[in-house]
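Why does this matter for the project? Reviewers at the last site visit asked to see concrete outputs rather than summary tables. In response, this paragraph embeds two records directly. Each consists of the residue sequence and, immediately after it, the corresponding structure tokens. Nothing has been edited or filtered.
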Amino acid sequence: MENEQPLSNEKSLQIIQQMISQAKSNITDNGLGWLLWGTMIILASLSTWFFIYTGSGNIFLGWNVFGIFTIVMLTYDIFKPKQKKVRTYVDDLLRLVDIGFTICLFTVIFSINVAVSANAGFGFFLMIFAFLMLIKGGAIKSRSLMTGAAVNWIGAIAMFINKDFKYDMLIMAGAVLIGYIIPGLILWMQYRKLNNGLKN
């Protein structure tokens, strides 16, 4: 068209930089989130197993601490100053996935308190953990996260079959170790390798 103005060199460079920023935001995950949440879940699970084994009165103390930690982290995430960056459709979609996951998480917690057994409730936890990992793994093309999702689904099925809640906590810890911690370590090592390569 005759009215279209040619792009200046400065505008062309700006568009290229925006495209690079979009690509980086879509494919990177430093793995630290998986390591942090995985560690917290494992500690809560093992503490519950220990409290049941020793006959403690408050077997869910570890999960209560985990719940407080989760609320603090979510509150910080909502109110922290947002860094200005180029947001893409994928970024917005993954944000909605995080919101949906959080709502499901608190719905399961509510159901454990009013409707379903702890045995079933913690199985549902692993189900939604697996779903989140599948979506995030697909978005960043991480086979380790998608494998971790499969492990968590298998863990959920094992928890539904098992009727002794004490062993559910060991299943939960094992599924999260394989499904969260190992993929988190792989992503962290890949992220460091990528950053070291960019610096050199």
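We now turn to the second protein, recorded in exactly the same manner.
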Amino acid sequence: MVVQFHKFQGTGNDFVMLDNRKGQLQLTEAQLKFLCSRRFGIGADGLILIELEPGADFKMVYYNSNGKPSSMCGNGGRCIVAYANQLGMIQDKTKFIATDGLHEAVLLPDNLVSLKMADVRLVEKHSDYYFLNTGSPHVVKFTDSLEQFPVIEEARKIRYNDRFTEAGTNVNFIQKHNDALFVRTYERGVEDETYSCGTGVTAAALVASLEGLATSKNYCDIATLGGKLKVSFEKVLDQNFYNIWLTGPAEFVFRGEIELPKLID
């Protein structure tokens, strides 16, 4: 079977996009892994199906590069909005369904997309890390010398510890750098460091706010290996955040078609 695809990236976090509005695509885990493979397939951190959804403009169905369904992806969310616009499904704003519920988004000039994230009502503070869910679970830790920090090695100690090994967690290491927050993220499902993680930088911005290190009271500039993002929010009490918006680029890379092998799991 020949599959037509589009490739998008948001601050270096890249995705294979498939149009499944007719519901004809029934991909196996092995086929999903093949499409995301950087050596044998197209290559991506994840794969996203765009599908029809009553009461919304579309539905976002997201898989990690390991071929398994995953939780919300912030960069992927912005990219699917750009994809829906390219398909002619939406114009400058949209509402769509993802695994964590309804999202709003606005398309801005210069390939920027602003995506409303889920509210966060609980932030766990531990002795040397924070844990919270911004649509996906995230550990956030402050560290020094982040550019040289062994992210993969140290993140795997957390991701596979007794608490997180079964369900998994993403792990973010952060450092205040000038007026921005520098964030590096290890993603479960990819099981590697990615150039950027949208739910991860959102988690990092909220933690920075709790520590008084955000750019301002309701706003944080973010720097990642793949580029710059902005997170705005409103806070009630100490651990309740709402009206959270993630803003950054969502850029079309290329389109093509690929022969999908008959792989079984």
